[in-house]
Amino acid sequence: MLQQRLQLKETENHCLRKEIDGLKKDLRSQGSMTSSSEVRLNRALEEIERLKYNIKENKMELKEARESNGKELQELRIKNKRLENQKADLSNAVKKQSLLIDNLKRQKLHLEASKLLNITEEEFLKILDWTITSKSDSPKTVTKDVKVHNKVDDVKVEEVNCQ
C-alpha cells in the first residue's frame, strides 16, 4: 500500500512535472511571442512617430510654399501692373512721336512751298526790275525802279520815275 501510494505519488509527481515542463514551454513560447510582438509594436510605434514627424514637416513645407507662392504671385501682379503702365506710356510716346512726325512733315512742306514762293518771287522781281529805253530820236532814257516791301500778306509795288 505504501508502495502503491508511493507509486501513485510518483506518477502524480511525474504528471505534474510534465505539466510544469509543458507550462514552462508554453511560457517560453508565450514570452518569445510577446517579445516579438513587443518588438513589432515598438517598430510600429517608431514608424508612427516618424510618419507623424514627416506629416508635420510636410504641413510646414506646404504652408511655407503657399506663403512663398502668395508672395511670388503678389510680386508678379505688381510687375505685371508696372509693365502694363510702361506699355501704356510707350504707346502714348509713340502716338506723340507720330503726331510730331506729321507736324514736321507739314512744316517741311510749308518750308519747301515757301522756298518755291521765294524763288518765284525773285524771278518776278527780276522781271519787274527792267529798264525801258525809248527808240525815239532823242537820247532820253526812262528808267523804272520798283520797290517791293516784302511782308507775309501784303506786297506793295511803287513806281518811281527817274530821268
Could you give the topology of this structure?
Elements: H1 2-128, E1 131-133, E2 141-150, E3 155-162
Antiparallel strand pairs: 1-2, 2-3
Can you describe this structure?
With 163 residues, this protein is α+β, with helices and mostly antiparallel strands. It has a domain at 40-129. Helix content is 78%, strand content 13%. The protein is built from one helix and three strands. Strands 1-2-3 form a three-stranded antiparallel β-sheet, with no helix packed on it. Strand 2 (141-150) and strand 3 form a beta hairpin. It starts with a helix and ends with a strand. Mean pLDDT is 82; it is low at 131-163.
User: Share of helix among residues?
Assistant: over 70%
Give me the Rg, rounded: 62 Å
Number of helices: 1
The biggest sheet, with number of strands, parallel, antiparallel or mixed sense and barrel status, is: 3 strands, antiparallel
What class would the helix/strand composition place it in? alpha+beta
Question: How are the strands ordered across the major sheet?
Answer: 1-2-3
Shape call:
rod-shaped
Report how far the terminal alpha carbons are from each other: 199 Å
Number of strands: 3
Order of helices and strands: HEEE
